[in-house]
Amino acid sequence: MPEFDTLAVGDVVAEQSYHLTRDTLVRYAGASGDFNPIHYRDDIATSVGLPGVIAHGMLTMGLAVQPVVDWAGDPARVADYQVRFTRPVVVDPANGADVAVVAKVGQLDADARAARIDLTVTFADATVLGKAQVRVTFA
Predict the structure, then answer these.
(1) Residue ranges making up the domain that contains 10
(2) How many domains does the chain have?
(3) Which of 1, 19, 60, 129 supports an S-S bond with 121, CB 3.0-4.6 Å?
(4) pLDDT, tens digit, for every residue of 52-75?
(5) For the whole model, what pTM was predicted?
């Protein structure tokens, strides 16, 4: 488990890539109960102005925080997590979609012994989650 005193603003603490497929979306829909057809039917997705079937926002959000949880060593260290959804992750029926996550120390609070970890989450060279920040506490 990382130690607070060894961290510096700007440190990259985790990096991870995820390959999503249409099967991934079906499995997530079953697990979450979110069966909105924009996550599995191209005709419905395009009829509402989307470029195609998109990944569930909460799936993207959940995948994005996982490298920080793994790095922290204990999920209880994650005290807060928030994002803004800025762009959809379009999951191609043949090629899927690759989502990349880079987690970097954005701020350190010595009094609270907490770190703000800033996430850069991209798909097709574009950021898909804005203001993605995780607060990690160190007892």
Answers:
(1) 4-137
(2) 1
(3) 129
(4) 999 999 999 999 999 999 999 999
(5) 0.94
